[in-house]
Amino acid sequence: MLGGDTLCYDVWDGIEHVDPGASCMERCAWWRNNELRELTVADLMVIDSDWEHVLAESCAMATETIKIMCPFIKRGAVERAFKDSSVGEFQVLTRFNEEDFYNGVSDTEALLWLLNTGAQIRGIKNLHSKLYIFDERRVIVASANLTESAMHRNLEFGFLSEKPSIVGQCHDYFDGLWARAGENLSQAILASIETNLESERAKNALLPGRSKLPDRGADLRSVVEPSLMENNNTGGVGIHGQSGGSSPADKLRDRFWAILLEEIDRTNELTINRKDKYTKYIRIETGIGGVSYRFVARTKNTSTIELIIQKGAALSRQSLEQLERHKTQVERDLGGSLVWELIGANNDVGRIERTYTKGGFASSDVEISKLSKTMVSDMVLFQRALKPHIDKLGLV
Length: 396
What we know:
seven-stranded mixed β-sheet
């Protein structure tokens, strides 16, 4: 459990069953077991200490995926926090600036340890975010790097959340940067970095002063960030989130989309505008810019169909509210409940979503085939149920 000094600023008014003296992790366990994740009273668990224990406990809990976004990583800190990892997918976004390694704020030994555990590692220039994701279950957003100072000496602050919408947005943020972060670190690249460092140290021992070492991370500042939706008015299906990667997860997603696209072709209910290897989601245009449907391969075990409205904060909120007036009818026509919510950093995107928790991109071919039939059938009903209400919004 977290130490007694750990802060917890959750709003628990009206929940008399929670011990007011309970720690953050005890409250989190109560919150999860009593199915309060969709309530606004306990979206965030604020943490200001015991970072190594919080990360280690979260790591031990994860069974499928761990994602780390952290600029500075030291061998001792990362090994203690993540030594019990047993997930199938371990992704790390960090910095490949050789100046960081030369000055000792990061370790090449830490990256080597991660590689030996099976982690995929990519580098981004000027990365400053710290984000830790554990399955589809938990995220930690913090000021803390994976260093001895952050774990034990610095005053660090952050929060833990198990609210599905927050976890989903953190996955989206991480995955967006991951897709643009370039190639995975290899043993050969790491050896080249270490050779440069040794050479520079040898030169500096003989002559004072030195040239600046290179930063091998991807420069995302020069890349235009794609919007969540492409603003065009053409109908049809587009397949997005190009990976071009050959990782096990990339191959699993390629297989997932191949089976789903076969089902889309077979039903002949959707207009296909097929493109090459894309794996993040399939978009179906409505004919209104910024408003479209998506099939999403969310995780290894979960998938979604959704409507996205990206028309600016005010119009997105207004449109979602107007559509939600017909929630009972739409859900009855679809034959099940949906999540209606505003997402994005500024709550400027509307989303209506159905989640499938018994099938994702790591499921068997038989399971994906069965899921594809359900998703495509539901998407057709989803569109039919929403179309008359979307047409009345007057959007262009």
